[in-house]
Amino acid sequence: MVDAMVTFFTQRLDYLLKHETECFTGLEEQVQWFKTVLNETGPMFNDVVEHDEAARSLLRELGDIVHNMDNLMDEVVIKMESVSGSDRELLVTSFGIEMEKVNVRLAENKGKASQLDFLIMAKEATSIDETSSSSSSLSFGLCFGKLPYYLRYCLMYCCIFPENYWIPKGRLARLLVAEGLVQEIPGVTMEDVAKENIQKLVDICMLLRVQHRGSGTKLVIPSPYREMLLRALQNKFFFALNNEDPSSIPNDARRVLINSDPKNIPSNLGNLLIRSLLMFGIKDISEVEFDRIRPVFHGAKFLRVLDLEDVKFKNIPDEVGGLVHLKYLGLKNTNVDGLPESLGNLRNLQTLDIRRNGNISALSRAILKLLQLKYLKMFKDVDVSGLKVPEGIGRLKNLHTLTGIYAGDGTAEELRSLKDLKRLGVMELGEEHASAFCDSITEIRGLLSLSLEAKNSCFKRKLPNMEQFSPPPLLQKLQLEGELENIPSWFPLLKNLTKLRLGFTHLSENPSLVLQYLPNLKHLSLWHAYDGKQIGKEFCEAGRFPKLEVLSIASHVLEEWTELVEGSFPSLNFLHIHNCVRLRMLPEGLQHVTTLKQLDLLPLLDDHEERLIPDGGEENYKIKNIPTVNYIKNSMVASLRNP
User: Fold this and answer.
1) Are residues 134 and 84 in the same domain?
2) Is beta strand 208-209 parallel, antiparallel or unpaired with respect to 523-527?
3) How many other C-beta atoms can be found within 10 angstroms of the C-beta atom of residue 208?
4) Do 40 and 171 lie in a common domain?
C-alpha cells in the first residue's frame, strides 16, 4: 500500500505548491526535495513481506515521516496567513528548519531501505488474511492484491461506513476526493475519476449495488470481504477507526468513525490531529454529549472532512471558520438553524451538504467567498421550498452540483454564469422566471442532471410553459414536478436520457406514447403523471422501452390496464405500482415479461389478493414466474392509519 501513500501525498504537495503559493514562498526547494526522495523511497517497499519485522518497522517509520510532513504543511498554511513582513520571514526560517529535520529522517529511511535484503515472497495485499485457509479468503486476497492502489484504497475506505450501511455512490465519491484518495487523470474531474473507480469495484463484485426504490445508487461491501479488510486495516497507518470503543482511538489517528452511540465520543477528540471525523446513526444526542464534539470546531485545525449527517444539533460554533483545510462539511438532516458568517473563511471547502435542515431558508453572502465550492446540496423539507441565495452566486464558477435553489430574486439569470454545472435542482420555478431560466440553461452545455419543481400558486403547483426550453444535449437525468399542459415537443430529443420522473404533472395525454421511443431510458417514474382512467397495449409496443429496467406508476384515477403485447418491456426488472387504489386487475400479457424480477403492489385491493393467490387465484398465472412479489392490502394500510 506504499504506492498509494506516496502517490496521494505527492498529489497533495503539488496541490499546495500550486494553490498556496504565497504560504510556501521560500520553502519550495525543501518541499520539492522531499517529494523527489519520497518517490524514490516508496518503490523499495512495494514487495515487502508483511511478517518481515525489519521491513515493517521501516514502513511504519516512513508512514510517520509522511504524517509529520503533512502536519507541517498544514501548519504552514494556517500560520502564514496571520503574519506579514519580518514576522513572515521568521516563520519561513522556522518552518524551513523543521522541514529539514523531516527531510533528514526521510534520507535515513531511504538509506536503510536500500540496504535491507527484502525477501520477495508475496505482495503485501495478498497476505490480507493469512490466518484463514478458506478458498473465499484466499481468492479475495489474490484478487485484492492485483488491484491498482487507488482501487484498494477506495475499497478500504468503504470500511469506515458501518456494516450493512447503504453507501450512497455520490457521497462516497465526494468523500474520496476530499480525502485525497483519488488518482489524477488529466482532463477528467476528480469526482468522475472516483465514480469510475467505484464502478470498477462494482463490476468485479467487490462492491455490491443495492436494489431499492429510492433515489441514487447505493452500495454495500460483502460482509466476508469487510471482515478481512478490517483485520488488515488494524495494521495500516493510513487508517484508524473507532469500533465503538473511545479508548481505542490512538493519538495518531487520522480518520475517526463514531457509530451508533454518543457515549462513544472520546473526551480527547479535540486534541487529536485528525483529518476526518464521520458520525453515523447518532440521532439522539444531549447537550452534554455534543459538548464533546465542540472542541473539534476549534481544536482539530487540520480537519479536511467533517460529516455529521443525522446528528441532531442546532448551532454550529463560529470557530468552524478556523478549519481552513476543511474540504467536506456534511450537515444533512441535523436540525441546524443557520450557518455562521465565519463559514466564509473555509476557502478550501468543496462540498457543503445542508439538505433537510428546515430552519435554513436562505444563505448569507459568506457563501460567495467559497470559490473552491463544487457541490452545494440544499433542500428545505419544512414547507418544501428552495433556499434563497445571495446576489452574486454566479461567481462560484467551480460549482458542479447545485440543488434545492430558489429560482427567484435574479437567481435564474445568474445560473448562466455557472457553465461547469453537471447537476442542477431548481425549486419554485414560476412563469415569471421561465424565460431567464431557459436562456441560462442554453449556456450550460455539459449539464447531466436537471430537476425542476413548480411554484405553488393558488394551492396548485404548475410548471411554466416548457416549449421554449432547449434541453442540454448530454442530459441523462430529468425530474419535472408540477402540472404540465402537454408533453413538451422536445422530449424526443432526449436521446441520452437514462432516468426520468414526471411527478404530479397530471397530463391529459399518455406520456408513454413518446417516452417508449427514448433509446437509453432505464428508470421511469410516472407519479400521478397521467390522468387517464385506462391504459392498454399502446403503453408499450413490442420492442419499445428497449433498455427500461425500472418502472414506477402511481395514480388515483387509473382503473384499468388492459394488456401488454408480447415483446414489450424487453429489459424490465422491477415494476412498482403505488397508490393505484382503483386498479382492479393486472394487465394481460404481464406473464410474457420474462425479465421481471420484482413486482410491488402498494397498496393492493383486498379482493384483488384473492385473485393472485397460488391455489386457485384466477390471475396467479400472470405473476407466478416473478421471483419476488410484494404487496400490502388496502385494509392493512387503513388499520395502520387508524389504529
Assistant:
1) no
2) unpaired
3) 14
4) no
